[in-house]
Structure formats: C-alpha cells, structure tokens
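Slide 14.
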Amino acid sequence: MSELPSIADREGERLQKVLARVGVGSRRVVEDLIAAGRISVNGEIAILGARVQVDHDVVEVDGTQLSLKADAVTYLLNKPRGVITTASDPQGRPTVVEIVPDEPRVYPVGRLDLDTEGLLLLTNDGAMAHRLTHPSFAIEKEYLAHVEGIPSRASLRQLREGIELDDGLTAPAAAATVGPGLIRLTIHEGRNRQVRRMCEAVGHPVRRLVRTRIGPLMDQRLKPGEFRRLTTEEVLE
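Slide 15: predicted structure.
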C-alpha cells in the first residue's frame, strides 16, 4: 500500500474548516489547537493550512480520534426497563433504536439486558464505538444495584477482588453500599449480565439494576425514555 502524501501537500478541505464544522470550535480555536500541536492527521502533527479528506483521513485531537462525517452523531439514552438493546426484534418488542431519530441510522454501543435500565450510547461513529467497546480502553461503567438482603463487608470485598463466574474470574471492581440493599458497582468489562451474575454469586440477587455512568458521562436530568445528543466536547473526553 502506498503511503499517504504529507498533510501539507494533499488535496481536500482545510482542516480548520472541517473541525469547525463538526463542532470542535471556531476556526480561530482550531487554529490555536493546531499551533499547540494538539491535532494530528494520520499520525502526523497537523500544521496550519493542512488539508484533509474526510472519507479517508484519521484526525485526532489530544490523541482521541474524531469522526469527520457530516452526519456523525452519538446519543445518550436513559433506557427504560422492558426495551431491547438492538436495532430490531423478531418478537416485536420495543427497541432502543425506535426511541431515537430514524436518520441518521445509529446503533447501540454495548448492551443492557431487557430488565436493566439506565444510560446507553447509540452512534454511527465507528471510532467512537471502538473506543467505548475495545478492552484496551477499559471504559468504566457504574451501576446502582438494588439487591436482596444486606451485603456484608465480606461480600463487598469479594466483588472488589473478583468473582469466579462460569466464563472466568472478573476483573477487580469498585463496590460500596450506599443504602439498605443498595450497591454502587463500577466495572470496566462487558460480559453478558455481568453485574447480575456477580451479585448473585455473593448471595444477593439483583431486584433492580440501573446504569448511572459510562466513562465520564452522567446525566441525572434524563428521565427513562429520554435522550440527548452528545456535544463534541463530550465525544472527545
């Protein structure tokens, strides 16, 4: 495969214009970011006057890849209980994709099971989806679990140190009691029904489960069934 031309010699749109269009900031703000060496194109530090091809180039701001698609969008949804985390369901049950706008078409990142509520991301931004799901990024996910019984210190210690499940030992987690029968649990893995299985393994089956945070993203204002579009600043976090 031939190497890409230097960003100083390529055809395409001016970098300042493209990044201003996708919401990084005004052209002046983008120029300041370029001058500070905080933007790269295909691994090469960008310079003022650089041009990019939005369909091919990889642009990063402070090391975070940014989609240049004009219709790139990521929604933060508060998933209600009883809604399927999929694009379609042969049984005719309601899906998360039906809650957000039809266009542009987006897909859920990760999964919340039918009975689990809380924050879920839907996007058409491949770089964003990769960053959220690839194990190397270890994105934290925080849950509030209403469980049967009152967890002991020993149970919490087990959750923190790792639980042996049928698909292996879980990674260390953050676990704390925040109320009677209420555990705040933070994990960075994405196994199927992981939190439910962990709690059941220590003798406290989950009655209700709500995801309250994905990485730095939280929004207590979103009611079940409500969603909002992420800002460019949130996408870059």
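Speaker note: The CA atoms of residues 50 and 92 lie 50 Å apart.
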